[in-house]
Protein: Histidine--tRNA ligase
Organism: Fuscibacter oryzae
Amino acid sequence: MTSPAIRAEAERLFAAFAAAGAQPVETDILQPAGTLLDLYGEDIRARAYVTADPLDGEMMMRPDFTVPVVQAHMASKAEEPARYSYMGEVFRKQDHLGARAREYLQVGFEIFDGSNPAQADAEVFALFSGLLAGLPLRPVTGDIGILMAAVRGLDTTDRRKAALLRHIWRPKRFRALLDRYAGRAPVPVARAQLLEKLAQGAPDALIAQAGPVIGLRSEDDIAARAAALLEDAAVKPIAAPEAALLYDLLGLQAPAKAALDHLRGITPLLPAIAPAVDRFAARLEALAARGIAVETLPFEASLGRTSMEYYDGFTFVFLGPQGQPSVASGGRYDALTARLGAGRSIPAVGGIIRPHMVADLRGATPC
């Protein structure tokens, strides 16, 4: 049950988004699981409530609003630019007692507008900053797009770059891959043993020795995978200076203006990031024009890599007291619109606020 104080806070935020030109939208609580599984992989099952419908198949209780809002916008071919706001419950499994609520209100705001992405980024952040003013919150910004550009520019194979990009939202797996590709970590024992076996015999002979094929992969699929593993094992490591720059980028934390200066300094050594750094610079100009103090605004290049799996550019959070989940979060998700748009895409940015946490910080007690 949602308390009157939390409901009032949610309605205040919702009204503010409407005043900013957003059209109110609603989405079904039950969402097709297939789309979410395609986006997040099987990891989403650990965080979402999954059920089965006799007609529609596997379904999930709405874990967030962004995906269904993007789907609805892209399917409707609505005029652009477009702005949307929403208010409703989302549902998340929790690993242990004392974590955030399993069901809670979420209020959000999304902008679909390709005319000036930097201005749209700044507008969303400044709007959220104003709505949360006076609360004991720490804003932090980031930019996944810079890290992605750095990976795409590495002097290595497309297969290795694709693997790093696929795991960019799984920091431990990403780091393990980067360590191996850079020659900083040995090949895992099991993988080394497999490579030795593959090098000693033809894949078809090894498949025959292993017994009957079980599962969805055909013998051709297995042979192709074996060839890919051998090819990858022969690839030269990422050069030490290039790897060092990527490690530096992963750990970059500084005030936004200082972070831009640092990125400008390493761009000649990592030229693939130049367009992303230019976008970062344009965003800081737009933020400064809206009264945001970019000289002190915290920036972390890796922000969002553990919780914002569809963001591919600007990211932000407003952090509450130590150990608490973020009170608000958001960012840019241009690639998501392409994936859900059946060949059509549009730059998009948005974010959500958790009104129960805002109400708590204002001194209201939820029921």
